[in-house]
Design goal:
globular, 84 residues, Glutaredoxin, alpha+beta, single chain
């Protein structure tokens, strides 16, 4: 399952969540303001705390780059990612 790190009130986070839902791509939302352990995890795994951040295995896509990735035609790769 893909992990999306978000914060409340983040317009880019909202756009990414809506895009993933529109593409029927399953993901787990990890709000770093509601659960501080997600912020610690994000810092440890990504080297910085930035949202939105989409984790696919050990690869992170963040911010504007993530929005660009979700606009590209090769997004089918994400659709085929295992949901569990």
């Amino acid at each position: 399952m893909l992990s999306l790190y978000t914060i409340d009130g983040c317009s880019k986070c909202h756009k990414v969540k809506n895009r993933l839902k529109a593409l029927s791509i399953p993901f787990t939302e990890n709000n770093i303001l509601q659960n501080k352990s997600y912020a610690i995890e994000l810092q440890k795994l990504n080297g910085e705390i930035i949202t939105p951040a989409l984790r696919i295995d050990n690869t992170f896509y963040t911010g504007c780059h993530l929005l660009q990735v979700l606009k590209e035609e090769n997004v089918n790769e994400l659709k085929n990612y295992p949901s569990s």
